[in-house]
Design a protein that fits this description.
Layout (H helix, E strand, L loop, with lengths): L8 E10 L2 E11 L4 E6 L5 H8 L7 E6 L2 E2 L4 H5 L2 E4 L11 H11 L4 H14 L15 H12 L6 E5 L7 H16 L3 E6 L2 H5 L4 E6 L2 E7 H10 L1 E7 L3 H9 L4 E7 L2 E6 L4 H14 L2 E8 L2 H9 L11
Parallel strand pairs: 3-8, 3-9, 6-7, 7-8
Antiparallel strand pairs: 1-2, 1-4, 4-5, 9-10, 11-13, 11-14, 12-13
Helix pairs in contact: 3-4, 8-11
The structure holds adenosine-5'-triphosphate.
Adenosine-5'-triphosphate (ATP) binds next to β2 and α1.
Length: about 325
């Protein structure tokens, strides 16, 4: 990631309203060349709406998007041939073969003769579909269509790739192949923005993540930063002798304990005390008050962090992407 060069994408205070619905609500972020960024959010979070505006297929209600130094609203034509867009579902034509389909897009990009044929062959090879060259595209499986979509997106050798839920509905093998393609493209220096509502899908491919909810970015940063924030919140399993309800009541009456859940032999709770020293003091107090047998701390993983962020159990921090 090159932090010193100007960002490849700069989004400022972006809003998209549908009637009174804020599908995208005051979103700002930058993407640097070579970053692989995951856009994660629940259904309806605003991911597709945001990506469609980045792909110059929709216009913001307010705010600005600059891509490769050009304004996406004023000069979409300067941007379109330098970005690749892969929607979550794309229509395919009947009576068209894989090779003809790619050839059509290669022509649209102005590629001619040998260069065009070589480009089509190379992209079929890269995406693993040379054997499908003469197959009709409306007869392809979901995974095969997805590979074709990837090949189509790459025809113009775009610098920025925007993929909306590309791995949805793929079987495990196709997912692995897809991850490898993203890895290869990242190694070629492409900047890649991928959306999904499945965090584990993105976490293996992306260096950086943007979490969206209700049209807003609720958190962003590198995976490491996000994991650190996540693991700053510790869930503690506490085993005690006697009635667990006494433990639950004790925790409820203290500052800094959340998500208190009774268990058969104790309780679990999330401690948000701001230092290990404070936590240690608190646990000593607890041992003096009740017959405690065991504490087991459990650091949270990214998936749990995301759920915590969505449920408001982690405090908002400034976005870093
Ligand atoms: N053309 C439209 N007209 C009206 N409302 C829309 C339109 N497009 C999207 N929306 C609404 O905007 C909100 C954001 O939708 P969007 O498709 O961007 O979410 P998403 O995060 O991509 O969801 P999913 O993961 O389900 O694809 C939703 O409430 C959706 O119903």
């Amino acid at each position: 990631m090159n932090q010193t060069s100007p960002p490849i994408v700069e989004v400022r205070d972006l809003c998209r309203l549908f009637g009174t619905l804020h599908a995208v609500d005051t979103v700002s972020f930058t993407l640097q060349t070579g970053q692989v960024i995951g856009l994660i959010g629940a259904n309806g979070a605003g991911k597709t709406t945001l990506m469609r505006m980045l792909a110059t297929l929709d216009q913001p209600t307010t705010g600005s998007i600059s891509i490769l130094g050009a304004d996406a609203v004023l000069h979409p034509e300067l941007i379109r041939h330098r970005i690749g867009w892969m929607p979550d579902d794309f229509n395919v034509y009947s009576n068209t073969t894989v090779r003809d389909y790619l050839d059509f897009f290669a022509r649209a990009y102005g590629l001619k003769g040998h260069t065009r044929r070589e480009t089509v062959a190379r992209l079929m090879e890269f995406t693993g579909i040379p054997d499908l060259a003469d197959r009709f595209i409306d007869k392809l499986s979901k995974g095969q269509k997805q590979k074709l979509g990837l090949a189509r997106m790459l025809v113009g050798d775009p610098e920025l790739l925007i993929l909306d839920e590309p791995a949805a509905g793929l079987d495990p093998k196709a997912r692995l192949e897809f991850k490898q393609h993203i890895h290869d493209l990242a190694n070629q220096g492409k900047t890649i923005l991928i959306s999904s509502h499945i965090l584990s899908e993105l976490s293996e491919m992306c260096s950086d993540l943007i979490f969206m909810d209700n049209g807003k970015i609720i958190r962003s940063g590198t995976q490491e930063d996000l994991l650190q924030t996540a693991s700053a919140v510790t869930e503690i399993l506490i085993r005690c002798i006697g009635d667990p309800q006494l433990l639950v009541e004790w925790l409820k009456n203290r500052e800094g304990w959340n998500n208190i859940t009774p268990l058969p032999q104790g309780a679990s709770a999330v401690c948000s005390l701001d230092s290990d020293e404070a936590l240690s003091r608190e646990l000593r107090e607890l041992c003096l008050a009740l017959p405690i047998l065991e504490f087991t701390p459990r650091r949270r993983n990214l998936e749990e962090a995301f759920v915590s962020i969505l449920s408001g159990n982690l405090p908002p921090i400034p976005s870093q992407a």
